[in-house]
Amino acid sequence: MTARLGLLLLGAAALVAAKPPLGFQPDPSSVIAAEIAFNRLAQEKGQWTAFAQTAADDAVMFVPQKVVAKEWLKKQANPAASVRWSPSVAYVSCDGNLAASTGNWTRPDGAVGYFTTIWRRDKKGRWQWIMDHGDRLATARATPEFLSGKVATCKRGPQGDAPPPPDESLIWTADVATDGGRQVTVRMWTGAAYETVIDDKVRAES
């Protein structure tokens, strides 16, 4: 994992092809690092403790209906052993303020699945998650040889000295049905159109 992250760091400059509006540099490696640190915290401090400590105040998760994460997490006790996960790819908005990561998870009982996390920078520039979800799979997704990252093309230029509004180069939706099924979609601006880069469909629990 460390070697893969190193390769991503070396390639980060090549991923930032367009100059972003005022704000943070759109660096996929920082999102990968945040995801890895999130998993490490879960192993050291407990699964739900890690979720609570890295969540934004308005973060949401699904149980299976959508809930405010911090309110729900207050009532949860950490399991004896945490789920383990690792990111495969990260997508970052042109202004560097929003990101999405996705990858694989494994539970202590051997169950496998995938996750998608939406990240947003706080006022100090730290990544906090604002949406987290996933689903179980019969067979784990193939693990990529290298971690990768992509940066969206800018939709808006600099606005003088004023902070620009969100550039909307990376957008996401989470639609939940009454039966608990849901669809999480992430789209990235390519310069001509939005490309769907994540499209997760979770069936209702039987």
TrEMBL record:
Protein name, UniProt field: DUF4440 domain-containing protein
SUPFAM superfamilies (UniProt xref): NTF2-like
Signal peptide: 1-18
Lineage top rank: taxon: Bacteria
Protein keywords: Signal
Keyword Signal: yes
